[in-house]
């Protein structure tokens, strides 16, 4: 340690409690590293000493039963020495980093960010891969059975990977080292060794610090394991480690994945273009006809466009939580906006037909009741999506539950709405009003109240089917069959919602229910009253 300027034994006692100037505005990740480096090195050395005193712990070092006891003892001694030497190298690397972060301030200008970056690159990138021995690397080679000694070697390797993780923003690592540490964590979990799991707590805390994706608890109950953010452990890097199952029955660790596939770029771009075009058409109709109540429907289309922009981006970045969260929430919340427009359209249509008496729900309450139900469903789905976006397993489960309840509320109100619409349609067919009588053969080529009712039926059924699909999808959970296959989302959500917008655009309700049409209705009614009075 004396090889480093400004470094002495005092740093072991002062660093964890000392204000580090270079970290005052830095990341929590680097701060946790600086405060935990001393303890990490100490625990690694302690376990290495324990391992060397227990030859039995090395029973899985790929030594065949035919080897002599002298060979086994020699291999155990060599392994122990390599562990000790490797930890010495690790301490040198850590000291170099801590020197840059803390001790070098008196010798250099704090504002020299370029020099600071050069120091970090030299300390973090150029050193450790060349410092570990080939014997240590040989311990990391794939084999049929991995024992405690190999597990400790991988654990030590995780501490080396932290060097890359700390400075990934200054170098092009693409978060690969995060994944390697998480793979090692899973390997250690499979070994079911409490001491190795304890050694992995600090690396896992460092990589999770900035993302705030799990709460690190005491290793005594090991409940923190369940809160680990599961990820695609084979992302970008080939793996020689054990492949985990979806649910580790021993540890109870559920593996949550943002995507269980690589999002299709072609499908995302296709629906991005389709939704953009149909949304622009609806916006044009709203502006042309001044039917501002229908802007809610347009906002639903905008949500879809944003959602599929995110899915397009996700094709090349499947680990971005913001992209996943925004995309999922936007696509999830678009249908409730469509539903609100449909509710308002029926209320306006009943008034247009002078058929308030035929509605089983008073028209002054009809729109309000269903829109309130839709808002409740919207808020619950938004809240569920927001909670899931926080990233932890407990939050994911809570968010899914809230989303399921929101979908159920939406489904219930929509079912009642369809019944209400059907009853009204039957009643006005039996007792037509003057405005409901359509003359001439052109009723299916123009926007009439009959075609608008047909549009409402078709749109309602499409949204209903989509809601049932989403309800089943979320009920199955993150590892469910539906959510694991992208095709179902495009068939039962994307296509259905696109057809909903197309159908509503083909017989646009605003052509009949715009303020102009409603105004003409009032003028016609006034004229008829005057005629009756004259008679």
TrEMBL record:
<feature type="transmembrane region" description="Helical">
    <location>
        <begin position="265"/>
        <end position="284"/>
    </location>
</feature>
<dbReference type="Pfam" id="PF04479">
    <property type="entry name" value="RTA1"/>
</dbReference>
<feature type="transmembrane region" description="Helical">
    <location>
        <begin position="487"/>
        <end position="507"/>
    </location>
</feature>
<feature type="transmembrane region" description="Helical">
    <location>
        <begin position="291"/>
        <end position="309"/>
    </location>
</feature>
<keyword id="KW-0472">Membrane</keyword>
<dbReference type="GO" id="GO:0016020">
    <property type="term" value="C:membrane"/>
</dbReference>
<dbReference type="InterPro" id="IPR007568">
    <property type="entry name" value="RTA1"/>
</dbReference>
<feature type="transmembrane region" description="Helical">
    <location>
        <begin position="365"/>
        <end position="389"/>
    </location>
</feature>
<protein>
    <submittedName>
        <fullName>RTA1 like protein</fullName>
    </submittedName>
</protein>
<keyword id="KW-1133">Transmembrane helix</keyword>
<feature type="region of interest" description="Disordered">
    <location>
        <begin position="515"/>
        <end position="535"/>
    </location>
</feature>
<feature type="transmembrane region" description="Helical">
    <location>
        <begin position="401"/>
        <end position="426"/>
    </location>
</feature>
<keyword id="KW-0812">Transmembrane</keyword>
<feature type="region of interest" description="Disordered">
    <location>
        <begin position="56"/>
        <end position="81"/>
    </location>
</feature>
<feature type="transmembrane region" description="Helical">
    <location>
        <begin position="447"/>
        <end position="467"/>
    </location>
</feature>
<feature type="transmembrane region" description="Helical">
    <location>
        <begin position="321"/>
        <end position="344"/>
    </location>
</feature>
């Amino acid at each position: 340690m004396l090889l480093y300027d400004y470094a002495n034994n005092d740093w072991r006692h002062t660093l964890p409690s000392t204000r580090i100037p270079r970290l005052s505005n830095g990341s929590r990740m680097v701060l946790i590293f600086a405060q935990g480096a001393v303890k990490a090195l100490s625990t690694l050395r302690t376990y290495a000493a324990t391992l060397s005193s227990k030859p039995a712990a090395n029973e899985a070092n790929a030594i065949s039963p035919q080897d002599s006891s002298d060979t086994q003892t020699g291999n155990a001694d060599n392994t122990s020495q390599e562990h000790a030497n490797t930890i010495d190298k690790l301490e040198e690397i850590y000291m170099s980093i801590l020197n840059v972060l803390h001790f070098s301030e008196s010798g250099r200008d704090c504002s020299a960010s370029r020099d600071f970056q050069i120091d970090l690159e030299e300390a973090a990138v150029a050193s450790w891969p060349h410092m570990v021995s080939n014997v240590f690397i040989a311990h990391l080679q794939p084999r049929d059975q991995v024992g405690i000694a190999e597990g400790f070697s991988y654990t030590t390797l995780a501490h080396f990977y932290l060097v890359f993780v700390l400075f990934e923003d200054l170098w092009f690592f693409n978060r690969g080292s995060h994944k390697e540490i998480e793979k090692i964590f899973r390997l250690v979990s499979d070994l079911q060794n409490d001491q190795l799991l304890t050694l992995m707590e600090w690396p896992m805390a460092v990589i999770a610090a900035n993302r705030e994706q799990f709460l690190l608890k005491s290793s005594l109950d090991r409940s923190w394991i369940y809160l680990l953010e599961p990820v695609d452990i084979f992302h970008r890097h080939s793996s020689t480690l054990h492949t985990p199952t979806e649910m580790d029955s021993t540890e109870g660790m559920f593996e949550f994945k943002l995507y269980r596939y690589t999002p299709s770029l072609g499908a995302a771009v296709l629906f991005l273009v389709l939704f953009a075009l149909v949304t622009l058409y609806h916006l044009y109709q709203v502006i042309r006809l001044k039917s501002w109540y229908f802007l809610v429907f347009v906002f639903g289309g905008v949500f879809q466009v944003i959602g599929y922009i995110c899915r397009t981006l996700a094709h090349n970045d499947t680990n971005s939580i913001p992209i996943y969260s925004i995309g999922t929430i936007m696509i999830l919340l678009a249908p409730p906006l469509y539903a609100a427009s449909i509710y308002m359209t029926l209320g306006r249509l009943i008034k247009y037909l002078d058929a308030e008496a035929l509605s089983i729900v008073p028209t002054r309450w009809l729109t309000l009741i269903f829109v309130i139900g839709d808002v409740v469903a919207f808020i619950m789905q938004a809240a569920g999506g927001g909670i899931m976006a926080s990233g932890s397993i407990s939050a994911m489960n809570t968010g899914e539950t809230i989303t399921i309840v929101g979908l159920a509320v939406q489904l219930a109100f929509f079912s009642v709405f369809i019944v209400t619409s059907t009853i009204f349609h039957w009643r006005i067919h039996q007792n037509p009003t003057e405005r409901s009588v359509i003359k001439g053969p052109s009723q299916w080529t123009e926007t009439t109240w009959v075609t608008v009712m047909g549009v409402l039926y078709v749109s309602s059924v499409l949204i209903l089917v989509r809601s049932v699909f989403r309800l089943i999808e979320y009920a199955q959970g993150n590892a469910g069959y539906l959510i694991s296959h992208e095709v179902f989302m495009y068939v039962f959500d994307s296509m259905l919602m696109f057809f909903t917008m197309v159908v509503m655009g083909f017989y646009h309700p605003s052509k009949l229910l715009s303020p102009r049409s409603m105004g003409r209705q009032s003028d016609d009614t006034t004229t008829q009253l005057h005629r009756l009075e004259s008679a």
